[in-house]
Structures are given as C-alpha cells and as structure tokens.
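If I may wish for something, please sit down with the protein I am sending here and say whether tokens and residues agree:
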Amino acid sequence: MAHAPPRWFQWMKYAVYGLLIVNTGLFLQEELTSFDYLFADGINTELLIQAFSATIDTAAWVVLLLMFELETCVLPDEVIRGRVKWGLHGLRAFCYLFIGYACYGYIVEMLYYYGGNVQPLAVVSACALGEDWSILVELDEFRPLTTESCSLLQAPLWQVGGAQVVADADTLRATRWLAWTDVINSVTWILVVLVLEVDVRLQLRGAYTGTLLLVSKASKLVLYSILLAAAVYWGFEGDFLDFWDAFLWLFAFFFIEQNLFAWQAETAAEAGARSAVRPGG
C-alpha cells in the first residue's frame, strides 16, 4: 500500500536495507576464509551447504525484505492484483526455498560439532600435532596451528569434522552454543515472516483487526524477543558481524511493521470515510 512517511524515515529505512546488502558480501568473505579448512578432504555437498549458509540466507532475506517493502509501502492496494500479486508471491516463495535451504545448512553445521564428527585426540598437548593442523577458534573461524598457538589449547583435545582441525573443550562448547543460536535464530525468523505473510493477506482482505490483530502482535512480541536475545548473546560472545547483522535485521523489520501499521491506519481511515458518506452515515 503506497503512503508517504516522513523523508527522514525513508532515508533511515533504505540506509538499513543498504547495510544489509553490504553484510551479504561480508558474510561471503567470512565464509570463503573458512572454505579451505572445511574442504581439506575434498568437496562434500552437506559441507557446501554448511560453508555458505549465512551468505545464502542473508541474500534470500534481503530479496524477501524488499518484497515486503513493495507490498506494505510502495505499491497501492489496487496494483497488488492478478499478475503483480502472483509475481510477488512467487518471488517470495522462491526466497523461502533458499531460506529453508539455509536453515537446513545451519542444522547441518550444528550437527557437524556433535557425535561422530568430533573425536578425542590421544595427545596431551596440541604441540605434538604437525603444523598442517588447524585450530578451531570459534564457529566458522579457523587458524593455522603454530608453535605459539598450540600452547594455548588445554587438554582434553578434540578432532573436529574428521579433518585436521583441533579444538579444546571450552572452544568446542562455545562453538556448539553459537551453532545452536544460529539454528534458533533462523527458525524464529521463519516464524516471523510466516506471521507477516498472514498479516499482509488479512490486511488485503480488510480483516487485520480485533482478535486476529492482538494474536499477531502477541506472537511477534515473543518472536522478536527471542531474536533480540540471540543478538545480545552474539554481542557478548564477541561475534561482531552476527551481532551487527542481527540488530540491522531487527531494525529492518521494525520498518516493515511500521509500514504495516501505517497501511492498517490508512485502510481504516478510508473505510471510515466511505461509511461517513453513505446515506444515514
């Protein structure tokens, strides 16, 4: 629905959208640096999903965000019909496929640090390993094992992913928590957009009122609280890119929510105006 928010609001909104596009490139750069470590023993399809899950996820979300921007702010209601409506929905469905694919990638990545993928090493010190080994620093971050860095690892030591990657217990535990946070964050965002999809359809039908509106607001309050908690956790864990990206996405969907509220108010005002001009209104 087209409406005219203040100019400063528009500039701020599109600045956030632009920063999210930049973040897509940053995630690609970050994941390319871990590519060689993950594929030390050859390319594996599941690891390929894992290796670029954040880049795929962010790119699909950016396109999806722009689709919501078109439908909730840019395009008038009368335009969102026929081919335009189905085109928007088709493109969003295409994005959901990639988002689901990326969510699967986060799950694969989380499982990468569990079970048979993680084996104890029968060495007391990482310095007994060769320099062709690498150290797991945190999720998706690896460094070469050197004579200086090997002394920083405390026994017991673990081999990760069947590759020549070593981690101590504390690092492995922290990495698992970060991997779980990625999964929870991804699933929660999927639930958020499902609620938004329902909101948009109800708004187009003039039914985004009463109990349905209250249920939508309550469910999104819970979901956004989970996302905020994930962002704060990333901040405390020192993963700045994930922290920064999470807050940008919260701001971005704040703008979408504002679009939706303005759209709802405009529709209600138009309905009131039509009622006022009817005989006996």
Summary: The chain has two domains: 7-116+171-269, 118-170. Strands lie at 118-120, 134-138, 141-144, 157-160, 165-168. Residues 240-277 form the longest helix (38 residues).
